[in-house]
Fold this sequence. Notes:
Layout: H1 3-31, H2 39-52, H3 56-59, H4 63-83, H5 89-99, H6 101-107, H7 115-123, H8 129-135, H9 151-157, H10 160-172, H11 184-189
Helix pairs in contact: 1-5, 4-5, 4-6
Amino acid sequence: MTVCTYIGIFFLCLWIADFLTGLAHWAEDTYCQSGYPIIGALICEPNLKHHEDPNLMVRTGNFFSRNWIQWLLCAVTYGLLWLLGLGYFPVLLILLLTSFGNEVHYWNHTTRLGWLPTFIKMTGLVQSQKQHSLHHKPPHTNYYCVLTSFLNPLLELVKFWRGVEWLLARTFGLVPIREGGQAISQRKKSRSVPARSRKTVRIPRSVVAEPR
């Protein structure tokens, strides 16, 4: 294969990985509830806190705590695919890139970056801080992909996520949390309070790192 072919494969894998980060992010924001077993505490609750305080991930945790869930999920996925005879190099590359999606997400919330993240961001290969800040404008229903700046505008142009939500609602009756869902723990406390009465948490622009 030529150099151009390798470059093309890399970018295709990068964009697929970016879509996977967006898919996971969209699912968390749209259907994930803190009362769910296991993932409620590990994934859903931290995601809710992140929208309330976007820079909490900067003030707490470390490189390992930010990424271990993604690493584990991607490693298990690759192991299963390898057992099925699908452990090709592009598959491995896609999962490796996907596993670092949350780290790129972190880069867009901090102003203290090392030389390597700074260099990578300067190349334009990963998502810009300016684009990610669009997701943190209430009600947080767009720009879900966190790895690059390429896919989000295209997905928003065709209203991809709203289309998927409509399809899931028509097929399986799944209703996005923002359109009537409540956290399981809240439902147990009171079934009489309609979810629409909850106030949307508005995030001051000052808590999101300013685009550079």
